[in-house]
Design brief:
Layout (H helix, E strand, L loop, with lengths): L1 H7 L6 H8 L5 H10 L5 E4 L5 E6 H13 L7 E4 L2 E6 L3 H11 L10 E3 L4 E4 L19 E4 L11 H14 L16
Helix pairs in contact: 2-3, 4-6, 5-6
């Protein structure tokens, strides 16, 4: 029955998923206490220990998620925040993915992405949505779970798998030529 509920609400963080998220912090009990006291409060968590984050433009990020799902791997936890998709990935992905893209000379064919690893932090939505009189933290922005963590050891995509999914998603994206934002000297 729990699995059926999980399938109906992939955007709800389970208690095990919340414990995993809190484990990213140097002070997990403090994070859990904050969520207990203010359940609608988003948190800023460090990257590099429990997870890295690949930060993609929203539409392209959704296409990458679709490619991962179609391959049967699933996407791992995913957040939508301020027009971007933040895919939680295996630790080490933030260093390896840009290196793979540069080595294979594919980085120019993909939309701009940011990789967050050790020394970086990202905003994650609250483990459960605010209800009734509880209010969401207005400073957190419209962060929400697209795919919420549901275990203490969620599956996270690696740099290799994300590279594959990004390339497939880029091939499926229709290309439009946009006018340059800045003209070259002597042309404008």
């Amino acid at each position: 029955m729990d699995e059926i509920k999980r399938r109906r609400h992939p955007t709800r963080v389970t208690p095990d998923g919340a414990a995993w998220l809190a484990s990213a912090s140097a002070f997990p009990r403090s994070v859990e206490a904050l969520w207990a006291a203010r359940p609608g409060t988003a948190s800023v968590l460090p990257c590099g220990t429990a997870f890295d984050v690949v930060n993609l433009p929203a539409l392209f990020g959704r296409r990458v998620m679709e490619r991962l799902r179609a391959a049967g791997a699933g996407s791992g936890p995913v957040v939508a925040h301020r027009g971007r998709v933040l895919m939680l990935a295996a630790p080490g992905t933030a260093q390896r993915l840009p290196a793979l893209l540069a080595w294979e000379e594919w980085s120019g064919s993909l939309p701009p992405m940011l990789c967050h690893g050790p020394g970086d932090a990202v905003t994650v939505p609250p483990p459960r949505a605010a209800t009734g009189s509880e209010r969401l933290d207005p400073e957190a922005g419209p962060a929400r779970w697209l795919v919420a963590p549901d275990t203490r050891d969620p599956w996270l995509p690696t740099a290799d798998l994300l590279l594959w999914a990004c390339l497939r998603a880029a091939r499926e994206t229709p290309t439009r030529s946009a006018p340059p934002l800045v003209s070259a000297p002597g042309t404008g």
